[in-house]
Structure formats: C-alpha cells, structure tokens
Amino acid sequence: MAKKTGLGRGINNFIKDTQAVEKILNQESDQGLQKISMDLIEVNENQARKYFDETALEELSDSIREYGVIQPILLRKMGKKYLIIAGERRYRAATMAGLTEIPAVVKEIDSEEADKISLIENVQRKDLNPIEEALGYKKVIDEYSLTQEELAKALGKSRQYIGNTIRLLKLDSRVVDLLLNNSLSVSHGKLLLSIKDGDKQFKEAMRIVNSGSTVKETTKIFEREKKPERTDVFKEKVRRELSDILGTKVNFKEKGRTKKIEIEYYSDEDLSRIYETILRSE
Q: SMART domains from the entry (predicted)?
C-alpha cells in the first residue's frame, strides 16, 4: 500500500492535527443521533486495536442486551456504507448481542481527516495493550517525522516510556502475538528482549506462559543463567602453572565423560620446545 502524503510533517503539524481531531470528535453532527443498520457498517482496518478480550466483550454484550448501547459509535459515510471512526468494541459487542441496528453519530469528513483521526486517536487511547500502543507510536513517528522526544512531550509521557514501548516490536513475531493476546505481560516482554535468538526467545516465552512464572521469578532465572560457572581454585592454579612452565596457553576441556588438557602451539619449532620442556621436567 502506498504511503499517504496528506499529513504535514513535524511536531507543530502533529499538535495542530491533534487539536483539529478533538474538535471533529466533539462537535455535534448536523444529522444528530441516528440508528444505523449493522449490515451497513464496516470496521476500520487502520484501527490500532487488533485484539479484543472475549470475556470483556461478553460482559459488554450482556450489558447491551439489558440496557442497550448507552454511548453511540462514530461513523463516516462511505458511499452506501459506513466506516467506524470510534467504537469498534461497542459495535462487536452489539453484534454478539444480536442487535440489527446501533445508535451512531455520522461525521461528514474526508479521507485525510479520517486518517488523522485514526492515527491520532490511536496514540491517545488508554485501553490499548502494549503492542497496539507501540504500533500507534511508531506510525505517528513515521508519518510526522517526529523524534521519540517530541512525541513524548506532545503526549505528556517520558521519552524512556515511548522508547521502551516501541522496543517491544523488536521481539520475535511469535512473542509479539503472545503480548498482543495478553498471554504475556509487558514486563515479561522487556525481559525477553535480552534474548537475541528468536527461537530461544519464543521458547522462554512459552515456558513463562505454561509455568505462570512471575516477573520476579523470571528475573531470578535470567540472573542465574547469566552467572558464570564458579571457578575451581585448584584447577585454575594448575592451569596457570602449566601455562607458565610450558610458555603457552593451556586449557581444560571438561565436557562429556572424557576430560582433556589442551596445549596450544604455533609452529613445529614451538611444538619441539614444549616437547623438550615436558621431557626435562621428568
């Protein structure tokens, strides 16, 4: 899909567009509140929220069956259809409740204004999960050519918060999916960033999911794995003395049932010198 070019660049344009979006969302529609057939409504593919908690949807659906849709959704007229600007969660719950129409406010806006609303509303929402939030931040930064510092100031957040959230997108795609469906917490995700290999990262993520390890327990496991093996004082003393006597590097190979002493040499002459040194020591 070609990149849209209708948005201005820079922090001033972002702030100006943010104010314009708030005005559009808060102004009343000329047509007032309407009842729109569910069959005529389409979801917005640019919506930041990709995951909807089934339990929460069921609860909202039950509420809608009993009390109806209290807050209308916002729609944009698209030919004979309507595109959701805000309220997809209410729309999904209303569908589950079996409603055939839903209360809505229809906004007369063009494609550029719709893009701005979708983009800006996505980074201002408080109900997104960390991956959805990260995708929203990254898209605004890319579209407006902002720095993380500029976006942080505009949203009233710290640059570290914005940066750490966006870093979650560097996780293996399978781990991202676990965060997206809330199987992993954001704190677990940040810990997993220390594992660079994708397969190992996913394996550890699944261990956390299956075992239910807390962040504290996972941190302790990571710290144990990072600690080097304790050095055997006697073997280290022997290794150093052998290296000094032979004038070359000596290592112990202790994997498996058979242990080995590895003595390095760099030429035939060096090998002859080491050989003579060993014989003389007898």
A: ParB
Residue 24: is its pLDDT beyond 90? no
Interval 189-239: pLDDT, tens: 999 998 999 999 999 999 999 998 888 888 888 877 765 555 678 888 888
- Nearest CA to 85 out of 44, 122, 57 is that of 44
Token duo for residue 226: 């990072």
Averaged pLDDT score across all residues of the chain: 83
Say what the pLDDT of residue 30 is: 56
Of 162, 130, 134, give the one whose Cα is nearest residue 148: 162
Question: Where exactly are the structural domains of the chain?
Answer: 11-155, 172-226, 233-281
* CB-CB contact of 184 with 205 (8 Å): yes
Q: Which class would CATH give 11-155?
A: alpha beta
In eight-state DSSP terms, residue 170 is G
For residue 133 the two structure tokens come to 């939030």
- Pair 34, 108: CB distance under 8 Å: no
Alpha-carbon span 32 to 104, nearest angstrom = 9
Is the model's pLDDT at 281 over the cut of 90?
A: no
Mean pLDDT across 15-28: 71
Catalytic residues: 88
**CA dist 106 to 91, 195, 265, Å?**
14, 48, 82
